[in-house]
Amino acid sequence: MTKMEANGYVEKGFEPVKDAFEHNFDKKEIGAACAIYYRGRKVVDLWGGSADSRLHKNWEKDTLVPVFSSTKGFAALATAVAHSKGWIDYDAKISSYWAEFGMNGKQDITIRQLLAHQAGLCAIDQLHINKISDLDTSHITSQLAELKPEWKPGSMHAYHTWTIGWFIGEVIRRVDPKGRTLGKFFHEEVAQPLQAEFFIGLPDDIPQSRLAAVQGMNSPFQLLFHLHEIPRPLLMGFLNSRSLTSRSMVDPNKLVAHENFNRREMLSIEFPSGNGVGDARSMAKIYSEFATGGKVLNLSETTMNEMMKPAVPPFNGWYDHVNRCEVGYSLGFWKPISGRMFGSSSHAFGHPGAGGSFCFADPDSAVGYAYVMNKIGGYMDGNPRENEVRRTFYQCIANKLLV
């Protein structure tokens, strides 16, 4: 079997990262890309494999790929930009920006509680979502305003799998003087200034030929093949239709089946919890901006400090009642906690996506990192392919610092 040779480059001293990336294709990676910025400089830019095996299409330098829940991290970055502009106070009540939100016991929920997945608004079983277009933020907000919290806000947390992006999008629209949707706001306030390609709502002028086709768990056989990748407690939650896991994640109409993310209809709407599309280089560049002080975006020191603060657990601890494991959340990001570390310290922030993509900023080491792929399995942040590339990169940094 011929070894896959990655395209792109690594800066001197980071050659082991290229080796780790290429080795992933021995572990059945189909197509993938990895980009890493270090101290504001791009030191890793790799891609390889197949973007669409059915069409025999190779992964190219400008290939774009859906990153599922890693999209939430970019929505959180947009919120940070709005905070830096003085439009959002993380400790303000959501109802002060969105009056209708205050009904059914939600009047005192703060932005910070929502972004820490503590608002109790994760369940989707009461929402009427029957077709893909219903997933667009503009079509769902009136229903969101009517939701009732599943628990006392602030007392515990549970992953707001679908809903968090919608809530962020509607708050952004209401605080923005121009009334822009989250997708347009992100494009104009983050992506364009950084000359980066990441979209929440794919524009019509992006040709289909640039998109990687995701291969996921769309049949019982494929699910069986990936079953070992899904943590057992999470799997048990999926199987219990009355569990908070099932009520927050499982879509009876299968609208978020992985295969639907190969449809233009899915990628063109604004579904900020899951349909972001971009290339690894752009994603790493965006996070690098936030890892190095946000000079291009003119981010305030206050905002930077807020993002870097360690996560604080809710009253009932780190246990996430949807993901059924311990997770640290803050301001819309995953944060490092004991047993679930990434980056150099608790100052890091980012978000994984279904199957194992991961994008994050590490301010202490000035790192912007992105690993993306089109083979979607059952992993969250535990994808061994991504984990090995990340571990190897940080070992390279350590070696450089020792020289």
Topology:
Blueprint lengths: L6 E4 L4 H9 L7 E8 L2 E12 L4 E2 L6 E2 L3 H15 L26 H5 L21 H10 L16 H13 L6 H13 L3 E2 L20 H6 L6 H8 L4 H6 L14 H5 L8 E2 L1 H12 L9 H8 L10 E2 L4 E2 L1 E3 L2 E3 L13 E4 L5 E5 L4 E7 L10 H19 L1
Antiparallel strand pairs: 1-3, 2-3, 2-14, 3-4, 5-7, 6-7, 8-9, 10-11, 12-13, 13-14
Task: Give an overview of the whole structure.
The chain is α+β, with helices and mostly antiparallel strands. It has one domain: Beta-lactamase, CATH 3.40.710. The chain is built from 13 helices and 14 strands. It has helices spanning 15-23, 70-84, 111-115, 137-146, 163-175, 182-194, 220-225, 232-239, 244-249, 264-268, 280-291, 301-308, 384-402, and strands spanning 7-10, 31-38, 41-52, 57-58, 65-66, 198-199, 277-278, 319-320, 325-326, 328-330, 333-335, 349-352, 358-362, 367-373. α1 (15-23) runs antiparallel to α13 (384-402) and α2 packs parallel to α5. The radius of gyration is 20 Å and the shape is globular.
For the structure shown, list the relevant keywords.
32% helix; Beta-lactamase/esterase; hydrolase activity; globular; Serine hydrolase; 403 residues; 3-stranded antiparallel sheet; alpha+beta; Beta-lactamase; 7-stranded antiparallel sheet
Number of E-type strands:
14
Order of helices and strands: EHEEEEHHHHHEHHHHEHHEEEEEEEH
Question: How is the biggest beta sheet arranged?
Answer: 7 strands, antiparallel
> What class would the helix/strand composition place it in?
alpha+beta
- Helical content band: 25-40%
Task: List the uncertain runs.
Answer: none
GO molecular function, one term: hydrolase activity
Pfam families: Beta-lactamase
Organism: Paenibacillus segetis
Keywords: Hydrolase
